Each structure stands twice: as structure tokens, then as C-alpha cells.
Amino acid sequence: MKDKNEFVDRVADKTNLKREDIFKLANDLQTKDLNNEQDIRSFIATVAKVTHQRLEPAKVDKLVKIIKNKQVPQDIEKML
User: What is the pTM of this model?
Assistant: First the structure.
């Protein structure tokens, strides 16, 4: 459990998100089918809203393509 808390703290520090928001995003992601484009777009919109980012449609399309083609980096630690 300690490692999970440290990981969440690192994500929070790196993204300037509250721990609660990170857990909400994680819970939301668990309800999504990442093979379903509608679910992917919904999750991207949720992340953008929580992070106060405005994404251009072309950027959303690119993110959807990356997720659908399973090109998301597997080692999250390297992203931090």
C-alpha cells in the first residue's frame, strides 16, 4: 500500500492534481472499454476537464488513435 501512495503522490506532484482527482480518474477509467472509441473520447474529455486543459479535436483524434492502437507507454514510472 505504501508504494501505491508514493506513486499517487508523485503523480499528484507532477501533474498538480489533487489525490482525490487522481483516484476519481482511475475509478472512471475502470468503467471504460478502451476498445470503444466513445469511451476513449469520454475519458479524454474527463481528463481535460479535471486538468483544465482545452484539447483541439485533432489532438483528441491523435490520442484516440494512440490508445486504440495500444501505443501507450507501458512503463508509467518512465513518464514520471
Answer: 0.78
